[in-house]
Amino acid sequence: MSDLSRPAGPKIIAIANQKGGVGKTTTTINLAAALAEAGKRILVVDLDPQGNASTGLGIEVEDRDFTTYDLLLDDSLPQDVIQHTETDGLLIVPATVDLSSADIELFSNEKRSFLLHDALRQTQMDQFKFDYILIDCPPSLNLLTVNAMIAAHSVLVPLQSEFFALEGLSQLMLTIREVRQSGNKDLRIEGVLLTMYDRRNNLSQQVENDARANLGELVFQTVIPRNVRVSEAPSFAMPVLSYDPTSKGAQAYRDLAAELTRNNG
């Protein structure tokens, strides 16, 4: 029975696509920054051993003393693993390459698929008063991604505007269906987000038309343009909203944050 004295928890969204290079981490960082700019309290959970979300939010490798690995496998407390970023209201649980061995270590744990679910719902999380938790998943459908989907209320799927973009979605949808059957019956698709979109390119328009024809309202109205400022921002260890607040990329992520907030209103 749930504890009615506890505050309602944050909305947890897994940002997932087993295909690399689709803008998954970029979306995690910049959507988080846009939600924080709108006054929400946000936690990013970096679940990718590459640690790109951590780097992109300015957390140096030498400053990652406690990471998602510790949260999952060493029962570390949230206050030990959560760090502030340079963006007000945006915090992170960073990752390092240590996480790459977690898949093997998780396999022998009988609660292996529910470790992140339990970690994000412990009472010590209440003190942070997060509105949203965004989980940056690794580019594979492994046990870490399954942990994210069982922990999450919904999955946001970045989809690069390129040939064969829709083909990889079927395996992801199959995994989501399996997670619904095995551990999270209420998991839903938050939406499919078209990324790296070039309005001058017929292919981008064709991918958008195909996505909307096949997936309907699952596709966000907001599309993320191919924008040099979005590409440059990670090398300066900051979201594009800090790097160039007036860029088209920054405005697109503000629009996405507004659309997401409306959908969850």
Automatic annotation (TrEMBL):
SUPFAM superfamilies per UniProt: P-loop containing nucleoside triphosphate hydrolases
Pfam families: AAA_31
Cited CDD domains: ParAB_family
Residues covered by the AAA domain: 11-189
Function: Involved in chromosome partition. Localize to both poles of the predivisional cell following completion of DNA replication.
PANTHER family linked: P-LOOP CONTAINING NUCLEOSIDE TRIPHOSPHATE HYDROLASE, PARA FAMILY PROTEIN CT_582
Name of the protein this chain belongs to: Chromosome partitioning protein ParA
Organism: Sulfitobacter faviae
